[in-house]
Each structure stands twice: as structure tokens, then as C-alpha cells.
Amino acid sequence: MKIKTLLLSCLIGASIVSHAVADVQTRQIRFGYGLNENSNQGRATKVFADEVSRLSDGKLRIRAFGGATLGSDIQMQQALLGGAQEMMVGSTATLVGIASEMAIWDTPFLFNSAEEADVILDGPVGQKVMDKLEEKGLIGLVYWENGFRNLTNSRRPVESLEDLDGIRLRVMQNNVFLDSFRNLGANAVPMAFSELFTALETKTVDGQENPFNTILSSKFYEVQEYLTVTNHVYSPWIVLVSKRFWDRLSATERDILLEAAKTARDFEREDTRKEAAMALAELQEKGMKVNELSLEEVERMRSRLVDVNQTIAQGVGQDLWDELQAALTELRSN
Ligand SMILES: O=C(O)C(=O)C[C@H](O)[C@H](O)CO
Prior knowledge:
Keywords: Receptor, Signal, Transport. InterPro entries: DctP_fam, TRAP_DctP, TRAP_DctP_sf. The chain is α/β, with parallel strands linked by helices. The protein has 2 domains: 25-145 and 236-277, Bacterial extracellular solute-binding protein, family 7 (D-Maltodextrin-Binding Protein, domain 2, 3-Layer(aba) Sandwich); 150-233 and 279-325, D-Maltodextrin-Binding Protein, domain 2 (3-Layer(aba) Sandwich). It has helices at residues 3-23, 40-55, 73-82, 114-121, 124-131, 175-183, 196-201, 212-217, 243-246, 251-285, 295-304, 306-316, 318-333, and strands spanning 27-32, 60-65, 87-91, 138-148, 150-153, 168-171, 187-190, 207-210, 226-229, 234-242, 289-292. Helix 2 runs antiparallel to helix 10 (251-285) and helix 12 (306-316) crosses helix 13 (318-333). It is globular and about 65 Å long. The two termini are 26 Å apart. Residues 34-35, 68, 73, 90-91, 146, 172, 193, 210, 214, 235, 237 line the site of 2-keto-3-deoxygluconate.
């Protein structure tokens, strides 16, 4: 972590700590996540928990539950809405049923790099989309990085779009992913992440798509033979708080959770990119047969997904879509 960021968070932390004791109550906060503890999601959750404890002088205690022990992303979202759980981190894609604007992050090939994603997600458009959750009963704090998604399957190498024909491909419970992969010729099957490993192992489905980090940490190499590098979409994660719980917190307690979530975000992105850079080689060592989709085939993929982009623009609202495109154009002109 860069000295400046650390110094800055210490300074901010110091100012929060001095106020913390005064209006911070002793609280247990149940924080759920879907990947296992030894994943980029698990490591960042640990950093978050330690930072909350440090900033609150140990009065706010994050109890972390990984491996979907508190349920799938959608089940945990419902638990937050009902106030039965306080916090979670999970995909934005499964939130589309609660806030349709979240679908904007499922746009295929939206970002050319993770750095571009940082600027947009942490900017006005990212905040506007996150703010849509409050009226639904959820508070979005920050976006963490899931990453660029790639294809795996147990049937054959995917060298061309035709190789996707008839592949039973698990996708997240999200219409954009369903439409996208049906447009690409696959037999797309919506399913919770918590059911995925078993579905691959029992060949209920032939394949799936996730970032290298998740393919590695979830041991998909044990049940998948082929990995095709497509980088077809960048997926964010979002750190959420139950609004019922948030409304009971003092201003200082809220500041502590937000500050700690930002510190953990900066750690998570750096950690995820470091792991992603070495994960492909490790997956090959573990026996996966890797191929990179050619630029021609990626162009064919893009052209097959133009209709999906229009559906997304209609779903999230043309104004928001145009605002995002304008922000990207400005970013790329710098
Ligand atoms: O379900 C998937 O494929 C995801 O990318 C989702 C996340 O990794 C999810 O947060 C795991 O619970």
C-alpha cells in the first residue's frame, strides 16, 4: 500500500478514532461473502474487519462469514433488506432485480482496463448507480474488483463462436448475461455461484465464466479442462449495508465503515491485480488447456452483442447510459 494512502488513512483514521470512543457503541456486524476465505474477496474482508476494529477502538466487530455460509448473494441481499444481516460483499449483477441501473456494469466489453473501471466506478456515474439502492433498503459503500471474466468448459476449446454452440453455460442470475450468451450460441443456464462447483463436477452444466482469480480460488481447474481468454466483461463487487442497520448508526460509526471499506477497496484492487497476473500460469500448471480468442472472433462477439447493449440502455435509462458513454469518451480523450 502506497505510503501516501497509508499516511492519509492514518490521519483520517486518527481523526475518526479521537471521536470514535464518544459516539460508537459496541456492535457485532455479520458480514457475508460468497467466495472462500483464501480468495481475493476473503482477504479484502479481513482487511476491512481489521480496519473497522482499528478505527472504532475495537468496539465495532465484523464477524465475517465466507463460502456463502450465510447464503447466496441473492439470499444475503434479502437478509440485508429484512435486517437479519448487517453487511455483505457480492456481485452487482445479482442486484439488477433490486436496482435495474446496476445492469449497466454488465455491458460486454464496457471497460478497456481495470484502471478505466476505477475512474468510472469511483466517479459520479458509479455513485449515481450506487445511490439507487438506498430507496430499496440497501446502502452501497464502495465497489471492489471481481475482474475481467473468461470462459471455461469441459467439452472443447472455444476457438470460434461456433464452438460455443450447445454448450450448457452457467451464468449469473441476470438477464444481460442470459441474453449475451444465448446470442453467442451457448445454452445459458442461470445459477447461484454457491451451486456452481457441484454443477460443474456433476456435469449438470459444461462451463461457466469468471475472472482468473475466482477460477483459481474456487478450484474450477479440478472440474474444467478448457479456459478461453475472452475478457468479455469487467465485473465489480459492491460492499453493502442493510439500511435498517445503517439508520441506527451514528455519523461517526457510518464514517468508520465507509473509511474502512475504502481502505479495503484499495488493498483489494491491488491484491486482485497481483493475483490475476500470475493466476493464468498457475491454472496452466494445474492442467488447464488455455487458448486466447482471436481478435477476429472477439470482434464477432462484439457485433453479436450490439442488441444486448441497446437492451441495457433501455433498461438503465438512456440518460444514465449517455452519461456513462460521455464519461468514457472524456476519459479516453485525456
Ligand atoms: O457468481 C459469479 O459468477 C460471480 O462473479 C459472483 C461473485 O463472485 C459472488 O460474489 C460470489 O458470491
